[in-house]
Design a protein that fits this description.
It contains ten helices and eleven strands. The strands form three sheets. Strands 3, 4, 5, 6, 9, 10 and 11 form a seven-stranded mixed beta sheet that branches. It has a two-stranded antiparallel ribbon with strand order 1-2. A two-stranded parallel sheet has the order 7-8. Strand 3, helix 5 and strand 4 form a beta-alpha-beta unit. Helix 1 packs across helix 2.
């Protein structure tokens, strides 16, 4: 295996083309430098320099070898920089899970953008999950941090609330509800309600079902969709109404009108999930970005 120190000596001599000046740069006496270059040549099996009493020039083999030697040393320097960033928690990988009803939130996009700018050496992987499986993936280490609307069942998951987001009614644009400035649960209860599938483990479903029960209104189940975009598409197709986070209004689907709810408690919670037993520097950093984004809204 080639000695990195000898490669550095070779690179310095190749840049100076003078053993005396190279020795000064390396803080060496000239004779030890000469011996190290000779030893490197012996290891390589060819001469790197043609030397006379007045000149030092690279041989043809030396010129060909130079970019490879330089590349090795640059990679070593890069590895040292990355190692320092890894130790400081400013580089590495972070797997972020999220539920589809959050992806349209300004908070989500702002946090992703800020984190990417602040930690350019972190490979951020985004994984869309059902709320019911998100906690399990945090607990078993498949995900480092998650954004959910459902409290996890596992005690291996730490939960932090980021507050609540208002719900709005998504109705077909040709529905009588679309002409109103606000909509009530009593009015929505006469229409089929489009939700996530029952086996999806949706935190949004849970919030909506609790809201209907609290106000004593019947919930007429309608068709289901596994993504917030498919739920809105079903509304546009006249298949029912939906209660969705207000960030969903950025989906300007033709045929869909969004209306605020009269009920002040028509909200869905937003939770951050992290492993309870271990701390992840990068997950903590992302949480810090989220909290900062919340305070600047």
């Amino acid at each position: 295996m080639l000695d990195l120190r000898k490669l550095r000596y070779f690179l310095t001599v190749a840049e100076e083309l003078h053993f005396g000046r190279a020795a000064l740069r390396l803080h060496l006496a000239q004779p030890p430098l000469t011996r190290q270059i000779s030893a490197l040549e012996a290891e390589l099996g060819f001469r790197l320099f043609d030397r006379t009493s007045r000149t030092v020039t690279l041989t043809a083999q030396g010129r060909s070898f130079l970019p490879y030697a330089r590349g090795v040393l640059e990679q070593v320097e890069l590895a040292q920089v990355i190692a320092g960033k890894l130790a400081a928690g400013t580089a590495g990988q972070l797997a972020l899970g999220y539920v589809s009803s959050i992806v349209l939130s300004d908070l989500f996009s702002q946090a992703i953008q800020t984190f990417a700018q602040r930690f350019p050496d972190v490979q951020l992987t985004l994984v869309e999950c059902a709320s019911g499986s998100l906690g399990a993936q945090i607990a078993d280490g498949r995900l480092d941090i998650g954004l959910s609307r459902l409290l996890p069942q596992s005690t291996d998951v730490r939960t932090l609330s980021l507050g609540e987001e208002r719900l709005v009614a998504a109705v077909s644009s040709d529905s009588p509800l679309a002409s109103q400035t606000m909509v009530s649960l009593a009015q929505l209860s006469t229409y089929p309600l489009i939700l996530f599938p029952a086996d999806y483990g949706s935190g949004l479903n849970q919030s909506i079902e609790q809201l209907y029960r609290h106000h004593g209104h019947p919930l007429r189940p309608g068709p289901t969709g596994r993504q917030i975009t498919s739920i809105i598409a079903l509304v546009a197709a006249g298949q029912g109404v939906a209660l969705v986070p207000e960030c969903t209004q950025s989906l300007m689907n033709k045929g869909v009108t969004y209306r605020p709810m009269q009920e002040v408690d028509a909200c869905a919670q937003l939770l951050v999930l992290t492993p309870a037993s271990t701390r992840n520097i990068l997950a903590d950093a992302f949480l810090g970005v989220l909290e900062q984004a919340l305070h600047t809204r």
